[in-house]
Amino acid sequence: MSVDYRHPLRLGLLLTPGDDGPQAAVERARLGEELGYDLVSFRPGASELDPWTLLSWTAARTTRIHLAAHPGGPGINPALVARAAASLDLLADGRAELILSAEPGLDEAIDIVRGIWTAHLRSPLSFAGEHHRLAGAERGPAPAHNLPILLTGTPDPALLRLAGTKADGWLRPPADGGSATDSWAGAEGQAGANAAIDQAAVAAGRDPREIHRLTHITGRFTTAADNADSSLTGTPERWISALLPLILDQGVSTLILTTDDPATIRRFATDVAPALRAARGEIPRSEQVPSLYVRRHRRDGIAYDAVPESLAGSAIEPGDAGFGRVRSTYLRGGSPGLVLRPGTPGEVAEAVRFARTQPVKLSVRSGGHGISGRSTNNGGIVIDLSRLHAIEILDKATRRVRVEPGARWRDVAAALSPHGWALSSGDYGGVGVGGLATSGGIGWLVREHGLTVDHLRAVDLVLADGTRVRADEEENAELFWGVRGAGANFGIVTSFEFEADEVGEVGFGQFVMDASDTAGFLERWGAVMEAAPRDLTSFLIIGRPRLGQPTVAQVMAVVDSRDAETIIARLQPLASVAPVLDYSIQVLPYEAIMNAPQAPHDGQGEPVTRSALAGHLTPELAGDVGRLIAGGLSYFFAIRSVGGAVADVPSDATAYAGRSANFQLVAFGANRRALDSAWDAMLPHFSGLYLNFETDLRPERLHDAYPEAHLGRLRALKRRYDPDNVFRDNFNITPEPDQARSQSSR
Amino acid sequence: MPDYGHELMFGSFITPANASPKEVVSLVRESEAAGLDLATFQDHPYQSAYLDTWTLMSYAAARTERIRLSGNVINLPLRPPAVLARAAASLDLLSGGRFELGLGSGAFWDAIEAMGGRRLTPGQAVEALSEAIDVIRGVWDVADRSLFRVDGTYYQVDGAKRGPAPAHDIGIWLGAYKPKMLRLTGAKADGWLPSLPYMKSLDEIAQANEIIDAAAVEAGREPAAVRRLLNLGGSFGPRSDRLLSGPPEQWAEQLAALTLEYGLSGYIVMGDDAATIRTFGEEVAPLVRDLVATERATRGGGIAGAGR
Ligand SMILES: Cc1cc2nc3c(=O)[nH]c(=O)nc-3n(C[C@H](O)[C@H](O)[C@H](O)COP(=O)(O)OP(=O)(O)OC[C@H]3O[C@@H](n4cnc5c(N)ncnc54)[C@H](O)[C@@H]3O)c2cc1C
Predict the structure, then answer these.
(1) Between B49, B55, B114, which is nearest A91 by CB?
(2) For A407-432, how does the pLDDT look when each residue is reduced to its tens digit (9 = 90+)?
(3) Residue B80 is part of a domain; what is its CATH number?
(4) What's the pTM?
(5) From the UniProt record, which GO molecular function terms apply (chain B) (predicted)?
(6) Is residue B201 part of a domain?
């Protein structure tokens, strides 16, 4: 009777570093990768060299091959091993696997390793076992992928039971420990072992197909089959005929060749592997059974088994190890049911075609910095574009650059800097390209160079039906108009073409100012900015006043000049707006201002903000803001100066409409109701809304952002390009008009 | 005495954050590109926000060519010395002699115990470190054909095979502050690696030097056998009268003084910032080398190049 656990065939190498030194062993691992082997491991205890060090080094010198770490026992500290294995996996982009040897306490060690990897549990890990004890160890990090734990040891019942109950695979050792090249275990006893594993798996509620069956093989290539039955000695044909039954009948999916002989490594790859792989064929992902843990964490309404093959490999589900790194955004906690991570525009199209058939929320994410936080959800699907992050110079003469949505503005700045170019984007380099460049982009050079969308020359989009189109001033011109200010409603932009500006070093001033007279401070700052030449752009932030301390404002300003006199001349008026408590003035490459740390998002809860555009910081507006801050309703209040080049462009030239405003305001609050009621009362002061700082989801906000004529054109576009309203995650422009009317008196 | 005459060494101190492994590795490469001699990493195996320092160092060493790497400092209580010695030698062999072993006796005992480690008193921890150094040197000493046995209070080795021998004489540098640790440093270590933020004043460096020197002499060693390094932080900006708060020239003058008057010869800049690393490697380091070389030349005498 033959068994088939539906795992793809994998071929590996077990290397024993020898007298020719560790570099030679690494070279053999690299040879293995070159020849198409799937897995490499270094034998523990066989030489004085440390296998973990060798494997970590090898990880850095390879790109594709998987790395099976096998810590030498006895006396390993499983908590430390767990962290080290996760570290290896993170460094090697998900290529690590962990082999644990049969020894007393293995059962406990597995629990501890998995416990450490369960990073999303906030409680520390305690464990009182017979062999291992932990007294409140921190959990984490989670590995990059579902790092398999493979148990190795002779097929004794206890080990097989443990493999079936808790592990991801059983690795059969060479019959005599592997010292002789013809000590091959063959297929003998495999069926019995399989049955024991299967039985234990079923008893534990698992599917036997969750557990991989691996075996070591050893042998010698000779010209004739001079062979004893059980040995792999002979011609490649002899090898093939001996190995095929293992793969096709005995359910073994990974063969690990134990050899250090480069000729044997080559010969197996060229003369044996192709026949084995052909006989096994491809195993579609949909036929591979995810673990019980993964299945248990699935959410209703998503047809997980129907995820397209091209996306299944990189998708992340709630039960997957990497989930903690993709669930939330910068500002909002989320718990999606499925995160699709397409790597090409074609895969984005497949993702859209799949997602639109699923009766759950759909979110689109580029950099995950959306302030409204709609790029995550609860129980729905996220299309995460972070793998699309290329930045490419298209034409030096016209400064034309192509940027993919998952790139961050930090990376864009760094890529353009060597050419003496920059694109004004925003004030924070961690922000993603996709969300910002489909909406506006109020950056450090906005008054001189305009909005980010003003530099957009063409986009490639995936539409709601999965078709791919290009839009620019000639082709799909109306769509191109809509993308520059309301892009999220019409499709997923997979590529942006911008015209960059020539920007050298800039002056960067930072001032801490006494803003006790908040209203007066705002008025004076506003007046300075309205009168300032365009090469000055300034943003300010006011925090929640601390009891008994003056209200303090941070004013930041960029002068597009490296000339000290110009910089001082521009900053002087700003510095006289209020008493300066501290300041620094630097001359920096634009790239340096955009530098920001990289880390996975860990937002919690719901962000609460209100936002607006204003023509002027009138005494009335400044007074209201002063009261808002003094009343503690906003713990973080910011104003960005706009105007200048932004206002050169007619309002109807792009979907972004608020061209006349000189200021963009945002208030972060802790209490939705309180902030809304205060802000709603301020609406008469405002001239419009830039949606990228808004979190109020009431439909009125659309009317604040888009005048009637704009909204009419946008709805017509929506009817044409997304009549079923697939893209509705963020400030949805519905195909048909909504009932709400603007409450603002513009 | 001070100025033990060591060749100067400049390094970085990189947080092994697991939130962004790529960035950590890229800071190592930045350090190399900036001409630094050394990239170092703290080791807190009980800290879930960090990458395993050993795995990281092995990986980063494979991504660089010239720069040396060291723990700063390796947590001995959670890393058994015999395994550590083999791993260190393996990494030294792989990297062509680019590994140094910064070592600490352990400080956060609750966390060490939480990870299944053994709790020791600070005094015991120093004794354990002393034993561990013997174990480590014993593993490396392949010239010794005798069976390798250690029957210590804290560590036992029972007739294990020695080896591998590292590619170069790996320096064992101790993070030490208290007299007992300082005496151990003088007696057995190749380097002393404290952190400036933990020191009350520069006088503490002078006092520690005296203890180390005395212990070295007592153990029959030259005081210059122990290199003195320092982890330090600071900021680049306009001139000030504070230590390491000013332009690169001011840093250089101050560090040169630390070499000539306090005997320090290794400076490791803290802060995970590529710009700081660049300024430190490209501007500060060459200036300090010049200042020190000039002064040493005028002082004359045969101190150049003592120790390693
Ligand atoms: C710290 C911080 C500072 C900021 N500073 C500025 C600033 O100075 N100036 C400024 O203008 N803005 C600023 N913003 C706001 C920023 O522009 C928006 O948050 C923007 O949406 C973030 O883009 P993202 O790709 O990172 O966001 P995501 O959260 O990934 O996306 C936000 C939304 O954009 C849409 N979207 C994303 N990708 C695509 C795509 N490829 N195609 C179509 N639609 C897409 C989706 O609807 C999604 O919900 C800042 C935000 C933060 C958090």
Answers:
(1) B55
(2) 999 999 999 999 999 999 999 999 99
(3) 3.20.20.30
(4) 0.93
(5) monooxygenase activity; oxidoreductase activity, acting on paired donors, with incorporation or reduction of molecular oxygen
(6) yes
